[in-house]
Amino acid sequence: MSEPRRLSLRPVRPVLWLALLVVLLALPLYLEAAWLKAGQYMMVGAVGAIGLTMLIGQAGQLSLAHAFFLLAGGTSYTVLSGPTGDQRVLGLGLDPGLALLGAVAISTLLGLAFAPVAGRLRGIYLGVASLSLVFLGLYFGQAAESLTGGTSTGRPPATFELFGFPFSNAGPEIELLGVPLRQAERVWYLFLALTVIAFVLARGAIRGRTGRAWRAVRDNEAAASVMGVGVARAKAGAFAVSSAYAGLAGVMTVLWFDILKPDESEFGTYGINTSIAFLAMVIIGGLGSVSGALVGALLVNGLPQVLSLYAADLGWFTGTGDGAFTPALISSFVYGAAIVLVVLFEPGGLAAIGRRITGLLRTTHPGKDR
Amino acid sequence: MNTFLQLVVNGLGKGAVFALLALGFVIIFKATEVINFAHGSLVLFGGYLVVVTKESLGWAGAAICGVLAAGLLGLAVERLLLSRARLADANSLALLTIGIDVIITEEIVRRLGVSLPFIGEAWDARPLQLGGITLFRTHLVALAVAAILITGFYLAFRFSNWGIAMRAQAENREAAALMGIRSSRVTATAWLVAGMLAGVAVLFIATQDFSGAGLSRGTHSIALAAFPAAILGGLDSTAGAVVGGLVVGLVEALSAQYVSFDFAKSAVFLVMLVVLVIRPSGLFGTRESTRV
């Protein structure tokens, strides 16, 4: 084979990831709280998008239900860790760390409960069917006030604690290289840890047996079952895993906003918009690519945050009311256009562009992580 | 009993509008196998043009303008974007329409700002009493218009050259192309017709009688309820679109009364979910089969 020699980044890849991690670990020492807050929101998106990219890109199941699982995870955490004895809302008073695990478990179970339905449907039918979960979530948020706190006031979540260490301004004062670690820094490290865990687990799943089964089912269900892949099992598994990720992202969302507030209409924090935003991250990143999903989240969840921070500095987009260009609006335009451009010109998304640039395409096995 | 009859009448009136929207989905799906997620934005676009031109053209002129504009936008989306993405499969194209939808909807909602204009002034809010039942004119006109348009579409689909070409293409794209059917023309007209149906539907949606609210983001979400209508009827069945539309209208009206107003939106999707579990391709849809 006379394959052209290409510059391969394969050996230095782990080094690059490590460098990125070091940078992310060091950022709180240099950035202001507002920027850290923006970064945290990108990580919320990243965790959710990693889950969705496995479901859509690897297992080939279109889902628009992500926002519902976000709500499920957020509500579960708030209820599990909420103070007991509140007249208005239900709380179980569990340790927040335990509540986080419980919230992920509940989201997973809900995903599994939907799996039989998902298993019967394909493609667009599944996409629209899963949309019904978002509407059920909307109703649930309005109706189950003792759990969600209702649409008008919502309810505050318990501050996250790990072995008694609070991720807030309370508790022991810690300084790192002269920088006090307050809420923004602590939550940054918490979210970073969660994102890294989510990322590593996802890469593991995709590279292993599970991922192979998902891709087999995606490419041809009949062929997959002939080869001994349990099709129903693989599909249900993908749905459960993706719901778990969305549930975790939901917990992070609630912690980020510092309030659980269900939507009044279907266009809110847990509404269709959010489902579509996650879909956008996944499409822009390149369906099925975990690192692509990270970049997608950076763009879709990060842009409005970054724009509004710059807006404060530069005096852009400060208009309100009629016909104002808000940061959220601008980023909707950008990611809407990005979806269109990606489908038209580069169906592999940013992941494919990245691969092309680094020339890694030839050195990895084709189709391995798409 | 009167309440029930009243609800059925209201439900059918709304259902007629959902049928128009669902038919739009089905026409596009039949011609191209693409689900048009941008349908809601075509609805908004048509409505917006009515609002903008109402002053100068009068209501009737503005209505015609809005319907045409929605149709032309559909056509433009197909010609300028979808037809260029020849390599993408139908599912990716559906995702592409999501991107289009986000852009158009956000821009129109921005332009509307806080004004939420009603646009069905030719028939809005002048109810007729019949026995103990109140008949909203919007619903009556919607039923009549939907009946005429759907019958017209059905006849054209059955007997015209366009209908034959369309059915041939829906049956087998390659074979139809080999038989000399210009697939691009069929596809383009499908989008044009679907867009125009969306433009007609918005004349009823943004009224006091139908939604109680003017043109807004809410209009887009009402158009979303046509999704379940199209899906539960079966995406490739025109009769299914009509039945689906009426079912959605009835479910919404009845559940709003007997369960709760908040539940009505979810009820529509819940009914769709139940139908899909029992019949994964909808009530009248063609079943996909896998041979091993």
TrEMBL record, chain A:
InterPro entries: ABC_transp_permease, LivM-like. It is found in: Cell membrane. One of its GO terms (molecular function) is branched-chain amino acid transmembrane transporter activity. GO terms for cellular component: plasma membrane. The keyword Signal does not apply. The chain crosses the membrane at residues 12-31, 38-57, 97-117, 124-141, 187-206, 236-257, 269-287, 294-312, 324-345. It is a multi-pass membrane protein. Its main location: membrane. CDD domains: TM_PBP1_LivM_like. PANTHER family: ABC TRANSPORTER PERMEASE PROTEIN, HIGH-AFFINITY BRANCHED-CHAIN AMINO ACID TRANSPORT SYSTEM PERMEASE. This is Amino acid/amide ABC transporter membrane protein 2 (HAAT family). It comes from Amycolatopsis cihanbeyliensis.
UniProtKB/TrEMBL annotation, chain B:
GO terms for molecular function: transmembrane transporter activity. One of its GO terms (biological process) is amino acid transport. It holds the Pfam family BPD_transp_2. GO terms for cellular component: plasma membrane. It comes from the Bacteria. The chain crosses the membrane at residues 12-29, 34-51, 57-77, 135-157, 188-210, 222-251, 263-284. It is a multi-pass membrane protein. Keywords: Amino-acid transport, Cell membrane, Membrane, Transmembrane, Transmembrane helix, Transport. Its main location: membrane. It is found in: Cell membrane. PANTHER family: ABC TRANSPORTER PERMEASE PROTEIN (PTHR11795:SF450), BRANCHED-CHAIN AMINO ACID TRANSPORT SYSTEM PERMEASE PROTEIN LIVH (PTHR11795). Belongs to the binding-protein-dependent transport system permease family. LivHM subfamily. This is Branched-chain amino acid transport system permease protein. The lineage of its organism: Bacteria, Bacillati, Actinomycetota, Actinomycetes, Pseudonocardiales.
